[in-house]
Amino acid sequence: MELDLKQTLTSGQCFRASEQNGVWTVFATSKQNLHVLTVTQNDLSPILNDEFWFNYFDMGFSYSKLKQQFSSYDETLKKACAYAPGIRILNQDPWEALCSFVVSQNNNIKRISTIIKKMCSAFGVSNAFPSAKVLSEASVEQLNQCGLGFRSQYIKNTAQAVLDGTIDFEKLKNKPIDECRKNLMLIKGIGPKVADCALLFGLHRLDCFPMDVWMKKVMNKYYPNKDSSYFGQYAGIAQQYLFHWARTSGDLL
DNA sequence: GCCCAGGGTGTTT
DNA sequence: AAACACCATGGG
Questions:
Q1: Under 8 Å CB-to-CB from A30, ≥6 apart: which residues?
Q2: What is the pLDDT of residue A1?
């Protein structure tokens, strides 16, 4: 079914999935409600038979056709697609995605997961992702308890912006991508990379092309005189294959 | 001890 | 506009 749980859930798009003895547990938010998934690679029916999780894993979109196209672009992208062909772009809650990638800055994936777990347990209702209201009202000292460090104030700024309407995810859905990025970057603590991740993983804007340290290495080495437009309207998906390959395969060394 | 991590801000050239 | 220090924190 061209969904690989491990490849998708460890590719650094979401930070609340874990595996034990082959059993995956995923926590996700929808309209401030917590969804919990328990699933194994051998039996994906909990995803295929549930409307929310079907959409979360983007099961309505054909990745195989896209991967064929990508593989004709160049050898690097072909290798990245073949390395983890079961990756799909998740449809995450916009608020949770934005928050998560504010946490991600100058940070590593394991520590991001730990921090978000602490945030959910400290500020969330029965382990759900904390609301914007709760986080905006939390003190910097309380947020620091989660290990946020210098990002505590950034989280507060972001939460406040969502509360007062400076950021309105519903409106962003109908706006051109440049306008979306500009809007998000009004907040102190949200730069181009965090904005792109929030748009790609939270609002499913597949043309967004987040440039983190790994993607900068990839672009410098393999695409020295190109930019994201080279990858077309689904550049964000190409980015995800390239990112995961670069970060975990060791081929870049 | 140093350098790095799905970066951003503020200051200095 | 490009280069740089600084930002907390844990792991290598």
A1: A52, A93
A2: 56
Rounded Cα distance between A189 and A104, Å, is: 11
Give pLDDT, residue A32. 84
- A204, HSE (Cβ side, Cα atoms, 13 Å): 14
A78 is catalytic: no
Q: Which residues of chain A have pLDDT under 70?
A: 1
Q: Which of A174, A173, A184 is nearest to A210 (CA)?
A: A184
Angle at A5 between CA A192 and CA A239, to 5 degrees: 30
pTM of the model: 0.97
pLDDT score for A253: 75
- The residue from A78, A193, A217, A226 that is catalytic is A193
User: Looking at strand B, which nucleotides approach a protein CB closer than 7 A?
Assistant: 4-10
Pairwise CA distance, residues A147 & A161, whole Å: 22
Nearest-10 crossing angle of helices A235-248, A75-83: 70
In this structure, is the CB of residue A78 within 7 Å of any atom belonging to strand B? no
The pLDDT of residue A31: 85
DSSP codes joined into one string, A110-137:
HHHHHHHHHHHHHHSGGGPPPPHHHHHH
